[in-house]
Amino acid sequence: MKKLLVRGGSGSSQLLVGESIDNLIAYIDPRRTVIVTDTTIEGLYRQRFPDCPTITIGLGEKIKTLDTVAKIYDQLVELEADRSSFILGTGGGIVCDIAGFVASTYMRGLPFGFVATTLLAQVDASVGGKNGVNFGGYKNMVGVFNQPDFVICDMTVLQSLPVREILCGFAEIIKHGAIADERMLDFLDAHQDDALRLDKAIVEYLVYRSVEIKAKVVTQDEREKGERRKLNFGHTFGHAIEKLTGIPHGEAVGIGMVLAAKLSAKMGLLHDREAARLERIIAGYGLPVRPPVDLAAMLAAIRKDKKREGDLIHFVLLETLGRARVEELSFDELQAYMSSVATN
Ligand SMILES: NC(=O)c1ccc[n+]([C@@H]2O[C@H](COP(=O)([O-])OP(=O)(O)OC[C@H]3O[C@@H](n4cnc5c(N)ncnc54)[C@H](O)[C@@H]3O)[C@@H](O)[C@H]2O)c1
Ligand SMILES: O=C(O)C(=O)C[C@@H](O)[C@H](O)[C@H](O)COP(=O)(O)O
Ligand SMILES: [Zn+2]
Questions:
Q1: Stretch 315-325: mean pLDDT, rounded?
Q2: Where, in this chain's numbering, is NAD(+) bound (predicted)?
């Protein structure tokens, strides 16, 4: 097992890469812990959790709402959870985002930790303290920055993940390579087959390196005033596509990264050859690369993105593979560049 630390103004988080869920008891007091999980994880892994009251939520982005949060508050009241209670979110990104938000707001905030059970949650969603829910159909509109005490990433639970969910995790791994580490992209290229069949050593390296990249950025800029914006590479288009089509987050981010790389090339930053290479890597990991909606629809959704400030939007571009930069673009500029970028 390897450990990393995320330091934020809201507290520090221990990231335990390769820890087993069978050792959970070393991190929590079961008499004080309430587990929040989803129906899949409850069915697959409940017998391996410590014996604690458990709140089980449904599946899918559609339940990442304030309504679900309110239902969890109700159950916490019923369980007589108090300020000495501890919330353990056990699941993918949806459980982590919701459980972290519930823990951060119930009774003005309880301590919490995560067991991240999807590849996407291990490499991204459980790390960095962004907790929240969607509102009015728009992504992550209500939330907080607040670090969990710990995150457990047990590689063995990834074996039960459906293939589509594994691929979604690779989208965020590729993102970390694209913004911060070209050698990671070389590694992803060289080890594609082993990575896709979840070879233990390969996946453990990719999870660790992803978390290392994200932990460094979050420690520098927890509240996303500058450097952290780069973690949003591919997300401006990605969130719009997710909202418009309901495809999973990782798939939408994969398409968003292809579009953002093409835009970077159009703006004279990234070489066309590099944009094409990134697209090849994303496609090689079985992810879609063409937007299933037209440009006008995406731009209309982007106008409501919470990263908009007046007529400007912070857009993450690539200078080269492995180095990102954030530019403020007006919607007119974005529209002008994108209308000359091939999107199909
Ligand atoms: N907070 C952040 O920094 C951050 C970062 C990235 C993504 N996110 C959010 O994460 C969410 C997506 O998370 P996700 O991709 O993990 O989706 P998810 O939580 O919906 O999980 C995907 C599916 O896999 C199932 N599952 C989970 N673990 C499993 C396992 N070990 N075996 C079998 N099935 C399992 C789940 O029940 C679900 O059906 C999005 O809402 C996205 O916005 C947040
Ligand atoms: O941690 C971050 O910062 C990220 O941007 C990571 C993203 O992969 C993630 O999808 C995040 O939830 C997006 O946050 P948002 O604030 O843009 O909604
Ligand atoms: Zn994301």
A1: 98
A2: 117-118, 130, 139
Band of residue 344 on the pLDDT scale cut at 50, 70, 90: low
pTM above 0.95, yes or no: yes
Instruction: Name the H helices within 62-191.
Output: 66-78, 93-105, 119-120, 163-180, 182-190
* Ligand 2 atom with minimal separation from the 130 CA: 1
**pLDDT more than 90, % of the chain:** 93
Q: Which atom of ligand 1 is nearest to the CA of 121?
A: 16
CA-nearest residue for atom 17, ligand 2, is: 232
Q: Taking 70 as the threshold, does the pLDDT of residue 292 lie above it?
A: yes
CA of 18 to the centre of ligand 2 (A): 23
Q: Which domains does the chain have, with CATH numbers?
A: 2-160 (3.40.50.1970), 163-339 (1.20.1090.10)
Rounded CA-CA distance 146/151 in Å is: 13
Instruction: Measure Cα distances from 242 to 145, 156, 164, 293, 298 in Å.
Output: 22, 29, 15, 10, 10
With beta carbons less than 8 A apart as the criterion, state whether 283 and 251 touch: no
Of all protein residues, the one whose alpha carbon is nearest to atom 2 of ligand 1 is 125
Q: Quote the ligand 1 centre to 3 CA distance (angstroms).
A: 22
Using pLDDT thresholds of 50, 70 and 90, give the confidence band for residue 342: low
Ligand number nearest to the C-alpha of 41: 1
DSSP for 167-206, please give it.
HHHHHHHHHHHHHH-HHHHHHHHHTHHHHHTT-HHHHHHH
Q: Please check if 224 is assigned to a binding site.
A: no
Q: Is the predicted pLDDT of residue 21 greater than 90, yes or no?
A: yes
**pLDDT average, residue stretch 81-107:** 98
Decide: 243 in ligand 2 pocket, CB within 6 A: no
